[in-house]
Each structure stands twice: as C-alpha cells, then as structure tokens.
Structure of Triosephosphate isomerase:
Amino acid sequence: MSDRKPFIAGNWKMNNTIAESEELIQALLPLVGAVEDVDIVVAPPFLALQAIVDSARGSAVGVYAQNMAEKDAGACTGEVSGPMLAEIDVHGVILGHSERRQLFGETDRLLQLKVPKALEFGLIPILCVGETEEERERGDTERKLRHQVQEGLEKVPLERLHEVVVAYEPIWAIGTGLTATPEQAQDAVAFVRALVQGFDKEAGNRVRVLYGGSMKAENAADLLAQPDIDGGLIGGASLDAESFAAIVEAARS
Ligand SMILES: O=C[C@H](O)COP(=O)(O)O
C-alpha cells in the first residue's frame, strides 16, 4: 500500500454549458461530501470554470482547466494563459491530452514549456501520455511513453517534480469502452513511474500516476488496486455524478 494520496479527476471535455455544469457540480458535491482521503478534481470547459470554482469553493472538489497556453500573454488568438486561470482560483490544468495532441497538433516540445509554466502559476499539471493501438501492436508502447514523459518533464525543476501528476491514457481505450486490463495498465504506469524516477528517485516514488481510458464504476476497483495506479482520469463516466462518485468511493478502499 503506497502512501500516495489517490487522485480522481473528471475531464468533462467539450460537454456541459454553464447551466449544465452547475447542475452536475450541485449533484456531485453532496455525493462526495467532505472526503479527505482522495484528491477529487473536475475539469469543466473554460466558460464554466469561474462558476464551478465558485460553487466548489470550500468543498472537497478541486477545479482544473483542460488546457493552457505556454505563454503568459500575447498575440495567441483563442488561447487562455496560466495567469488567467490562477486569477480565478483554478487549482490545476490537464496538459497534452491525446485529443489536444491529435486534433490540435500539440507536441512534446510544446508540453515541455507548458508543464513548468503551470507550476510557475501555482497550477498542478496533469501531463497526459499514451500510445495508439498501432503503436501497441508494433511493440512501441514504451518508446512512445519514454519520449512523452522525458520531453514533457524535462524542464520541470527537480524540487517540484513530485507535484506533477501523470496520466497514462492508452488512446485505444479513450471513449471506446475498451479498457486496458489491470495488468496492462499497471505495467505502463509502473514504466512511467520508473521514467520519473530516472529524473529523481524520490520524486518518482511520490508522483501520482493515473490511468485513463473507459474507467467506470464497474472496473475502477480492479484498476485502482494495482500498486502503481494512484487514481484515474475519467471522461464519459465523470459526466454522471453518481458514476463519478462511485469511482471516488472505489479509490477510498
Ligand atoms: O480524459 C479522459 C480520458 O480521455 C478518458 O475518457 P473516457 O473515460 O471517456 O474513455
């Protein structure tokens, strides 16, 4: 049993208007109550962030953004910066989600700037990594993870490395209903942890590594029972307050 605190994050992706986001958080807050033994996070779309920060203030639920620019300010139409997120008391940010990488061309080089930038503004970064189905079939999973983790964390000051959260999300399991087996997930997550230990042994022991990809109430307990899996990054199942709360509950036992 590790002494790393479990971390359960719900990525709402491009779902929920402000009113719908409000409805979801109001349904979730009483279900999770004052849970203290799990870090619980929701990541609403940008427009709902302020409302959800206000609604969740003082509760057990932290509020994260789904993306952040690598610069503080400037001519970057459509982007949102770290200082803007920090100003409204957002607690952290998901970075390098595979949808950002695949649909919006985010590269490891860009993430190398974004991860330390988030920390600079007091935001906890969740760095997402993971292989495609073809890469897994070719036996390239570890090579892909090595590249993503080493590039993504390269410019993080060593003394702050343990604050970063890494989410292993095999792309073939995202939104597909296909879940990695607990053994597949454990192997990949342990590999990610070893890569962080390669930067700094102690930080690698402390860093939280999550699994993401069709995690739901029914399979959460088996995944979370694996020794290196410290939590989950949940998409679809986080849009239903009861399902998400059930995953939080699974992380407690
Ligand atoms: O950010 C969350 C992941 O992409 C997982 O999404 P999913 O639970 O809908 O498969």
